[in-house]
């Protein structure tokens, strides 16, 4: 196996464990689908779309390496952190600063 394949397997393994060990990643969608009488296909479609948004926002946050995020991450749960970072990025762009 070359380095790229090892990295891909490691990332996929961590992503799988991250999802399975975090019921907040799938229970919400199960409950929403049941409450709204969605088909399995629609529930899966919504879950995948939201999952892609979660992954892309995490990659963007990591790629930007926003200053001070490490200290905040110790004080707040990840969901709150993502919201704080996204709102601050929008505010910076709105004020003409680079993201």
Structure description:
With 99 residues, this protein is mostly helical. It is built from five helices and no strands. Helix 2 packs antiparallel against helix 3. It is flat and about 40 Å long.
Profile the largest sheet: none
Distance between the termini: 37 Å
Q: What is the string of SSEs from the N terminus onward?
A: HHHHH
| Uncertain parts | none
Shape: flat
Beta-strand share of residues = under 5%
Mean pLDDT: 76
Give me the count of strands: 0
Helix content: over 70%
Counting H and I runs of at least 4 residues, what is the number of helices?
5
Structural class: mainly alpha
Radius of gyration equals 17 Å
List keywords for this structure.
about 80% helix, about 100 residues, flat, mainly alpha
Short description:
With 99 residues, the protein is mainly α.
């Amino acid at each position: 196996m070359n380095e790229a394949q090892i990295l891909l397997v490691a990332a996929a393994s961590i992503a799988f464990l991250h999802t399975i060990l975090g019921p907040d990643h799938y229970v919400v969608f199960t409950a929403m689908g049941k409450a709204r009488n969605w088909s399995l296909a629609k529930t899966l479609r919504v879950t995948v779309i939201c999952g892609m948004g979660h992954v892309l926002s995490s990659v963007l946050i990591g790629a930007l390496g926003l200053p001070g995020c490490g200290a905040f991450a110790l004080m707040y749960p990840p969901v709150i952190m993502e919201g704080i970072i996204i709102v601050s990025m929008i505010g910076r762009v709105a004020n003409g600063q680079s993201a």
